[in-house]
Design goal:
Order of helices and strands: H
Structural class: mainly alpha
Strand content: under 5%
Radius of gyration: 30 Å
Shape: rod-shaped
Helix content: over 70%
Distance between the termini: 99 Å
């Protein structure tokens, strides 16, 4: 043992700091996951909007081609 060491383990101490660090890291991970989920939801919404737009364009093209054949 080094000079001044009593050999006893303090209550809390490093173990408490580790628990805090783990909790803080878990909170940060949760926050990041939430933000990623929000971004994914926004992207899915945008994809659905683009799909609708493409369907409308396809419908217009089909109608225009049908009118041109008459």
């Amino acid at each position: 043992m080094a000079e001044g060491d009593t050999g006893g383990v303090r209550s809390g101490g490093q173990a408490q700091a580790d628990a805090f660090s783990k909790r803080e890291a878990a909170n940060e991970d949760f926050y990041v996951r939430q933000k990623e989920m929000e971004k994914l939801a926004a992207l899915k919404k945008k994809i659905d909007e683009h799909k609708k737009h493409l369907e409308e364009l396809e419908k217009n093209v089909t109608e225009t081609m049908a009118q041109g054949e008459k």
